Predict the structure.
Amino acid sequence: MINENQHLEYRRGNIFNVLLGTLIGGLAGAVAMLLLAPQSGEDTRMQIQKKSIELRNLTTEMVEDTVAQVRANASKVTIGGREKMKELKEQGQELVVEQLDHVSEAAQAGKKAIQSS
């Protein structure tokens, strides 16, 4: 019985020492934080707010620049496509004219052949 009582008192003492050490460590950390803090909480909140506004503005600018680049590239592609289509149309018309000339020449040759026979 004496052994159990001594053991119980020893455990209570250890728990008390751990709790006391935790409390003292927490207080020391809080004091160190207050003494070593670079600025007040209000200043920190203002700094965070300013940085978030800067990041928002930077993000907005980047999005606007990207949209402008996409629009410019789309415009270039559209203009390029129209120019290519115009070139192909002209080439097609030239081929049609050439083929019509060949057909016309062949018809003329046919007429001459028929007339001479």
Summary: Residues 1-39 form one domain.
